[in-house]
Write the structure tokens for this entry.
Amino acid sequence: MYNLNDKIVFITGGAAGIGATAVKLFLEEGAKHVTITDTNVTAGRQLEKELETKFKGRVKFVKCDVRNDEELFDIYKTIIDDHGFIDVVINNAGIANDSIDVYRTALNVNINALITSTLRARDLMRTDRSGRGGIIMNTSSAAALTQNRFLPVYCATKSAVLQFSICIGAQENYEKTGVKVMTMCYGVTDTSILSKETLKPFDEEMTDELYDCIKQFPVQSAKSAATGLIDACKRGDSGSVWLANDNKPVEDITPVVKKAYGLLTSLVI
């Protein structure tokens, strides 16, 4: 069981929704300091102000577009300069918008920035260099476990996150570095991502069908999803995959995912 007390935590996309709730839970678990990044400056500063009253000096918001390597790496450098190390990184920033004007941004945020952040964090945290090990939790989605004809880009990005995290989180890689890499898959969650202003299909004529489709799935609270994240961080092995869905306790679905990939692998070996 991983102890979150006295840990240095970094969360991208942490100003609202699941990320903001997770920030609060990490602090309640005794995290020494949590750095939050987001492009939503108003929400980020408000969250920092709100938490500062209870957790004075233990939380900091920094505006960052995770697609910008310079901005992202500067935050990593600041955390190392201020605290000496990083223990937990939650790559939570994401976009669910397949529209023709936004899908390239979604690709860059959901895949490229997440991979860049993971590689940077792993390099700083690894015990065979200057770090002291720790956890990187990458945010995928139940969309990586299903197919959705309305959101092909989103499903593709979250599937990429799943594969990347499983592969880089392999036990052999963990044993060399002391850095766990895990995957969190959230089911449909009651956050702003569900609004028609943010969640868009690749073909705008499919908007109503998309929302009818979503209504088939159970909706969980952000608190339930974030609680699942905390539990997975405590309990998870490197390379493991976790599902937080329907306000139920988080579930380790690694055996199911391994079985599925095993079936696919059998087709090529």
